[in-house]
Design goal:
The chain has 581 residues and is of the alpha/beta class. It folds into 4 domains: 120 residues, Glutaredoxin, CATH 3.40.30.10; 120 residues, Glutaredoxin, CATH 3.40.30.10; 115 residues, Glutaredoxin (3-Layer(aba) Sandwich), CATH 3.40.30.10; 156 residues, Glutaredoxin, CATH 3.40.30.10. The protein contains 18 helices and 21 strands. The strands form 4 sheets. The chain has a 6-stranded mixed beta sheet. Strands 1-3-2-4-5 form a 5-stranded mixed beta sheet, with helices on both faces. A 5-stranded mixed beta sheet has the order 6-8-7-9-10, sandwiched between helices. It is globular.
């Protein structure tokens, strides 16, 4: 699944004002730019004077302020700058641990005019939902408006949090560029997507500049220009857009306007946005437009792009995954993806034989040997209820063509396809004894928790292990949900940590390694000639249900590894033992 990362404050290089522009024009641009900033600052100063008395009573210096639905919007707006807000739950252990650091952060930000506050998300559920709070604590930095915010995901120490906030306060949110198509193209080529504001007229351009600064603040959590660089240029002619690659289709753009410059294959290079109404009310429309346009129809799968297709995983939504490197088929599938763009439930992803492609392939039971392939990954309520459909299994022997893929996707949308059988056997408290304890087979059990990150990382590897042993009559690979039934968390098997892998009645294993390591671990323990010796205390715990096997005992160190070629020998030995019994 999607990986989470911590980000720390930093700055990307900023282009110099007036670079490559005649001195008089550059000076005039700086004067106009200064005029816009002076007007905004003057308005902010006037607003601050009117509200200073109220603000002094609402936000004591150096203290964390409590906010709720009744005063949240007013406080964020009145702060006149940045507001750092913690959304917490009273019962959350991480939130309790954060308290001293959060109070210290307020003290460190006191002299910079930054409001530090907190919101009880349990008491203020509507407010928490409005700001997309899905875990605790959630830390968001607001910029003068409840609509303009960015999530903090860095270290939760006062020093690091204060450092990040102050860096965000002092960063240059937009880069001033010369009206040169060559230099703008070079600037935009550094990232897959860049936003360019074309300014004309002091009043409208001032409002547009404010919207672009807010957009840069929101789109670049770590530093301006980090993910989506945003620049501005003075231009009196939309012809500049044509020189940047605009096809000129649609109505002639009017200035000021915003252009999105993209470097995606098979996609238009320049898209233009002008608001339907007035610029002062355009921020939300601008952000929605950027969100829709910054992602190509056929998304190239990578660690940098996974957030675009592994976030919207509501039940019933799906991914069409193309594993392969045929250029013509990639072009055909891009055209198909464009035709399905109105279907919000479906995203299209192209994956190569790379580390990321192979890693994502494991989630749908694919290995590099299965490439090329087209599969649909349909999300369920939980990872256990996800479904996978593979084109090669729906249409045996069919070639990978645009026509075949379109029919495959159409059948999925109409509910005509049958999902692959999950090789991992699901057990419940009612079936645990019959499928695990009383089973004549050797049984490998993963005890897991749905919220556990290590368990999520293991899930695709565990599925590959199950596929490897799918035709083996002597072993079952099963997985119960530990949190769904207290009966399954029996003494001697669970040690209080997830995930645990156990050979029931013999072994328990805890590790974060992948498919190959699990298989070699299985080989080792299946081949023990006298498993009853373990119950006599000759090799550890004398408890009937097994011995803890962890990294210190060599499971991760490799001293017990056996090659897969030993599996058949182990099977024959076990069969002989059962026959003697």
């Amino acid at each position: 699944m999607a990986a989470t990362r911590s980000t720390e404050a930093g700055h990307d290089p900023v282009l110099s004002a007036g670079m490559g522009v005649p001195k008089r024009r550059a000076a005039a641009g700086r004067t106009a730019h200064a005029t816009w900033k002076w007007r905004r600052r003057t308005w902010s100063a006037v607003l601050a004077l009117h509200l200073v008395a109220a603000e002094a009573s609402l936000s004591p210096d150096g203290t964390v302020r409590d906010l709720g639905g009744s005063n949240f919007s007013a406080a964020i707006t009145r702060s006149g700058g940045l507001s750092f807000v913690e959304f917490y739950a009273p019962w959350c252990g991480h939130c309790k641990k954060l308290v001293p650091e959060w109070e210290r952060t307020a003290e460190l930000c006191r002299d910079d005019g930054i409001l530090v506050a907190k919101v009880d998300s349990i008491a203020e559920k509507a407010l928490a939902q409005q700001h997309e709070v899905q875990s605790f604590p959630t830390l968001r930095l607001f910029r003068g408006s409840p609509k303009v915010s960015v999530k903090y995901e860095g270290p939760r120490t006062a020093a690091k949090m204060a450092e990040w906030v102050k860096a965000k306060q002092n960063e240059d949110l937009v880069q001033r560029l010369p009206a040169s198509s060559e230099e703008i193209a070079a600037w935009a080529s550094q990232k897959p997507v860049a936003v360019l504001g074309l300014l004309e007229g002091v009043v409208e351009s001032s409002v547009l500049l404010q919207a672009l600064e807010d957009a840069s603040f929101t789109l670049n959590p770590s530093a301006a220009g980090g993910e989506v660089p945003i620049g501005i240029v003075e231009s009196t002619s939309p012809a500049l857009l044509k020189s940047l690659g605009s096809t000129g289709s649609g109505p002639r753009p009017t200035l000021p306007c915003v252009a999105l410059l993209r470097s995606f294959d098979f996609e238009e290079k320049v898209s233009v946005f002008t608001p339907q109404g007035s610029w002062p009310n355009s921020f939300e429309a601008l952000m929605s437009w950027i969100a829709a346009k910054r992602v190509p129809a056929l998304i190239p799968g990578s660690e940098q792009t996974e957030k675009f297709f592994l976030q919207d995983i509501d039940p019933g939504n799906g991914l069409v995954l193309y594993f392969g490197e045929d250029e013509q088929l990639r072009r055909d599938l891009h055209e198909l993806a464009v035709s399905f763009r109105s279907d919000a439930k479906l995203k299209w992803v192209h994956l190569k034989k790379s580390q990321f492609g192979e890693s994502l392939g494991k989630n749908v039971g694919l290995t590099p040997a299965d490439f090329p392939e087209v599969a649909i990954w349909e999300f369920g309520e939980t990872e256990d209820t996800d479904k996978v459909y593979r084109l090669s299994q729906q249409s045996s022997g069919a070639a990978l063509t645009r026509k075949a893929v379109q029919a495959f996707v159409d059948d999925w949308r109409q509910g005509k396809l049958s999902a692959e059988k999950d090789p991992v056997v699901s057990v419940t408290s009612d079936t645990f004894d019959s499928l695990v304890i009383d089973n004549d087979k050797d049984v490998l059990v993963e005890f897991y928790a749905p919220w556990c990150g290590h368990c999520k990382a293991l899930a695709p590897e565990y599925k590959l292990v199950a596929q490897h042993y799918a035709l083996d009559d002597d072993i079952s690979i099963v997985r119960p949900g530990c949190l769904q039934s207290d009966k399954l968390a029996f003494e001697g098997v669970l040690t209080g940590a997830f995930f645990s892998l156990a050979f029931v009645s013999v072994f328990i294993c805890q590790s974060e390694d992948g498919c190959d390591e699990v298989q070699t671990w299985l080989c080792r323990h299946q081949e023990l000639s006298d498993p009853q010796a373990l119950c006599k205390g000759q090799e550890g715990d004398s408890h009937r249900r097994g011995v803890q096997v962890n990294a210190d005992q060599g499971w991760n160190s490799g001293v017990h590894r056996r090659a897969p070629c030993h599996e058949e020998e182990g099977r024959q030995r076990r069969k002989a033992e059962r026959h003697r019994q």
